[in-house]
Amino acid sequence: MANYTLNKTVYNSNQYKKVIDTSLTQYVTPPPVEDTITVEEFFNYYNKIFYDIPAEGNINSHTYLVKTSGDYIQSSTGNEEVQLLLDEITLLRQQLLNANQQLINTQISSSLQNI
């Protein structure tokens, strides 16, 4: 069996502070705990306070939610539908204008024949 020699160094309370670093420089503070809720919790709260939320307003309103959500998803579907409706209105106005013009022309023609 082999023999090993062990040496032990002992420091008194004044000496060890000079030899051993006790500043805990390796210690990292944990990130602060954020007050967050899950998406499911959000919608549970939202459904509970739905009628308490004002319909109109720049912030904290249904109008604000619709606007910010629409901006977020860049709702192009709604824009396409609006454009289709505007195009249809333009076409109907043109047809009405043409029909009125034909009516006026018919009335003028009828008046001239009666003279």
Which residues sit in consecutive blocks of at least 5 with pLDDT less than 50?
none
Q: Structural class of the secondary structure composition?
A: mainly alpha
Rg from Cα? 41 Å
Outline: rod-shaped
Helical content (DSSP H or I, runs of 4+): 55-70%
The whole-number mean of residue pLDDT values reads 85
The main sheet comes to: none
- Percentage of residues in DSSP E strands: under 5%
Enumerate how many helices there are, as a single number: 4
Quaternary structure: single chain
Q: Kindly, what is the distance between the CA atoms of the first and last residues, rounded to a whole number of angstroms?
A: 143 Å
Based on DSSP secondary structure assignment, what is the total number of beta strands? 0
Element order: H for helix, E for strand: HHHH
What does this structure look like?
By secondary structure, this protein is an all-alpha fold. The protein has one domain (13-113). 59% of the residues lie in helices and 0% in strands. The longest helix has 38 residues, at 76-113. It is rod-shaped. The model has no long low-confidence stretch (mean pLDDT 85).
